[in-house]
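The following block was generated as part of the benchmark described in Methods. Ligand: nicotinamide-adenine-dinucleotide.
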Amino acid sequence: MSDRVGSGSRLRVGVIGAGTIAVGAHLPAILRLRDSLELVAVADVRAEAAKEAAERFGAAHAYTDTRELLDRSDIDAVVICTPEFLHAEQTLAAAAAGKHVLCEKPMAATVAEADAMLDACQRAGVRLMIGHSRRFTPRYQRIREAIDRGDIGEVRLVRENERRPIAMYTAQAGWAGYWAPDAGGGNARPWLEQAAYSQGAALTNAVHEMDLIRWFVGAEAVSVYAESRITDPNAEVPDFITASIRFANGALGATEVVNRLPPGYPVYHLTEVFGRDGLVRALDPAMATLAVTDPTGTTFPANWGTLLQVPIAYESQLRGFADAIAADGPVPLDPVHARQALALSLAAVRSSREGRVVRLDEGEEDAATPAAAVRRGITGSDGTDPDGVGTEGQ
Ligand SMILES: NC(=O)c1ccc[n+]([C@@H]2O[C@H](COP(=O)([O-])OP(=O)(O)OC[C@H]3O[C@@H](n4cnc5c(N)ncnc54)[C@H](O)[C@@H]3O)[C@@H](O)[C@H]2O)c1
């Protein structure tokens, strides 16, 4: 349990998982916000990753066992930056230790796990926020503001496309590379390429799209039809998903995500919101395809640096989280939205697998997916079964 009381002092933070997104976004944001945040410790099963991140970002403590970080009474909140199949287990442990939680997206691997996270944090009286960073990205905030002002009238269709080259993932992986859970057993494939640990583009990427579409439409999804493919011969999980969503207010959503395009392909994100009276299209240069025109013509250099480094989003996400704790108020992004986006992504996975329209009120598929089956065999560092976290509420 944290010994911190009241507001005014800095929020003392521990980071769990020191991989790509932690080192690329959260830890630098914590450092920039040092006036209100203090990095106390970093934990990662890879000792070198924990040690290097702690040294680089000024934490006094580095652990390979998350339990040791959670046992510290001088930590108020944790930022969970591990893959989604660990989110529920680690959030439950953090809540039990009295720590507030900012957890990366997707919220969890199943809706049941997401519900267990909501329940555990509520019972423990700690804040839970999910890092849907795009909610804090200026271009998406401007779109929502345009909708709120009534610039385009009632929203009827939202389209979200995201196309990424495989080289982007190699470039973003940083010094340590993505975590390969089975490296000790000789399998050096990163978790996000393995069916045992990931559901592919539907959760890695499209959970962002699902969240943004819900946000812009302003209603709950009723049904989804999706098709997915493994287009990369080396991939184990779908790298291409396209989905059509029907919302309760009659609006439609459409999304297409491809994340293993050939190396030279530029990153391309497109957001279009069609309303009764007009259209708003994302134009923020920091997120648009980079085009360079010179006397020889127009080229599209690799632009994932400008695309993914949206430091202001991670800063305002963290600041909002810290301010909510200091003020003892609600977090700026209700985790229920992340739960709903996850439910939509998982319904899309099911739709693409079963080749039919899936209604959201069908509830969650039983835990018979390949990833869930393998997860059942994974135990946490404290020997707990991560699938034992709860079964209620689909
Ligand atoms: N918000 C965004 O736009 C965004 C972008 C990228 C990744 N993410 C999310 O962040 C999460 C992590 O992704 P990543 O790309 O950083 O992956 P990664 O493989 O680069 O990093 C994961 C880290 O977790 C560590 N780890 C594994 N098991 C652990 C355990 N039991 N305790 C402590 N540390 C452990 C690994 O060693 C690794 O360093 C995922 O949920 C991913 O979807 C979000």
